[in-house]
Amino acid sequence: MNRFVFISILLFIVSTCMWGQKAAIKTNLLYDATTSLNLGFEFGLGSKTTLDISGNYNPWKFGKARWKHGLIQPEFRYWFCEKFNGSFLGIHAHYAHYNVGGLSFNDNIKNNRYQGDLYGAGISYGYQWILSNRWSIEATIGVGYARLVYDKYPCAECGTIIKSDHRNYFGPTKAAISIIYILK
């Protein structure tokens, strides 16, 4: 996960310096509510386009339950009015590495552990409200596809693989309520 954070920060710094466009830093309050550390960078590419790169990391283990993961989700956005203001459509990709088990969602995830990778893409719609010269709030929802490749273990703490498998998923792939600070 550290290399994803490093690459995101590097892309943000280089693009801001090269193009001198408007840029922002953000945090997703929904990820914060799940104790996932997260940070996003968005920078202008043109008068109505931006590139948003967000990532989150959850290293925590709660007793026998674990929801460990690292996720990176870049998104190209087209703004209907002007960048960083109003409605936008986005195309996003996502990659995650996860280690999940012992959670009370259902008997399967409560009694087993899944470790593997997720990747895919989707489309999103969002709206950004300007609060002041530097602060904004944004809501985003997205749908798309994800491929989960995983190893299944018999319990949240066990190390013996039951099986290796994969799943295809279609449905929600992005949800955010973000607090944004405009840098430039």
Detail the topology: elements first, then pairings.
Elements: H1 2-19, E1 23-28, H2 29-33, E2 37-44, E3 49-58, E4 61-62, E5 65-79, E6 86-101, H3 107-111, E7 113-130, E8 135-153, E9 163-182
Antiparallel strand pairs: 1-2, 1-9, 2-3, 3-5, 4-5, 5-6, 6-7, 7-8, 8-9
Summed up, what is this model?
With 184 residues, the protein is of the alpha+beta class.
Number of strands: 9
Low-pLDDT sequence parts: none
* Shape type: elongated
Residue fraction in strands: over 45%
Q: Count the helices. How many? A: 3
Secondary structural class? alpha+beta
Round the Cα radius of gyration to an integer and report it: 18 Å
For the record, the CATH class is Mainly Beta
Order of helices and strands: HEHEEEEEHEEE
Please, what is the average pLDDT? 89
Most strands sheet: 8 strands, antiparallel, barrel
Distance between the termini: 27 Å
CATH architecture: Beta Barrel
Q: Percent of residues in helical segments? A: 10-25%
Overall tally of structural domains: 1
Q: How is the largest sheet built, in terms of strand order?
A: 1-2-3-5-6-7-8-9
CATH topology: Porin
Descriptive account of the structure:
The protein contains three helices and nine strands, in the order αβαβββββαβββ. With 184 residues, the chain is of the alpha+beta class. The protein has one domain (2-182): Porin, CATH 2.40.160. It has an eight-stranded antiparallel β-barrel. It is elongated and about 55 Å long.
